[in-house]
Amino acid sequence: MPPDLEAIAEQVFVALADPSRRAILAALASGGPATATDLADRLPITRQAIAKHLAVLAEAGLVTAEPGERRRVRFRLRSAPMQVAQQFLAALARDWDGPLDALQDLLDRGES
Amino acid sequence: MGFPDRIERIVEITHPPAKVWAALTTAEGLASWFGNQATIDLRPGGAANMTWTGGHNVDMRVERVEEPTVFGFTWHIYGLPEDDPRRTYVEFTLEPAGAGTRLTVVESGFAQAPEDAYSTAYDGNIKGWASELAELIAYLDAA
Question: What is the interface pTM, i.e. ipTM, of the complex?
């Protein structure tokens, strides 16, 4: 397995551990690409803090910067790292114990 | 390593392999312990489907059928978008153990890289970021 996958997942979880960054990601997910100013208007977070968090998110590959109107940088959510994190969660959430118990119960019932 | 690619369980079942095989590979069996309803075309490449009360629905593709010892299928990784091509592989192995069966289930493939994880676009975005950030900070400072 490439070691980078775990690093990607870790960056997602680190990003999501902070409530301001969760709010920024949620705003980009629900409202689409936005500038730092748009985000500052919509969220109870200062522009300076938004810039700092966007830098962290961009470094982790969770948002990408793209040119917007009037040369203002717009930020867009990037889904690929989220999908890596989802894989990690999928492995943790996979329940084989429940179905295997059910299989044993089924066969035991059938015998009686 | 914290990212599990593979999940494995071994259970001892007090019934012979033939009986366990039927529970794993027939629509009636699957619908009795795994899904609430099931269909299966039991041959490599065959389609199978399970649905649950409440609407959850999963398509499987049968990969290995070696009665009564190996049954394998692939399915979609739960939680990923419907159009994501990645699938995990599930393999049941049945071994006689006394009068019963030792059943091993292995699901593997959770740690596959998504297609664009290592794309040049990704690297480009990371590298391009420094100049964008400088521009952003300049803009914010001016505001």
Answer: 0.76
